[in-house]
Amino acid sequence: MLYRRGSDRVAKYAAKFVPETVAARFTQVKDVAVARAQEGLTMWAAIQELIRPILDKYGVAGPQRAVYIGYANKLAKHAFRQAGDAGVKIAEALKAYYVTAFNADPRLLTEINQVIIGYAVPY
Fold this sequence. Notes:
Layout: H1 6-16, H2 19-57, H3 63-81, H4 84-102, H5 106-117
Helix pairs in contact: 2-3, 2-5, 3-4, 3-5, 4-5
């Protein structure tokens, strides 16, 4: 069996990319896409508003704030998709990863857990 080369893939992409078709598809789904974006972006903004007071309380400043906001966003993403024991295991693993990889404070992560999913994951 022959594998598709890069040039084969580019040729297929070029053949499928018709600006009129793309514009028509975007027009057809615009209302749905805008409604979903409004819902999703509002949710992410609300999560960040919940996390900022915790960061202020612990004096987290500068680029380190992004670590904790990123953690909250990732935790929320998984919490919305997984519940029960699966959600707990994902939260535990995510917390351990952030402590190890980003030197995040486990106390802050625990408070973020409480805000996002309503329970503290032991570390």
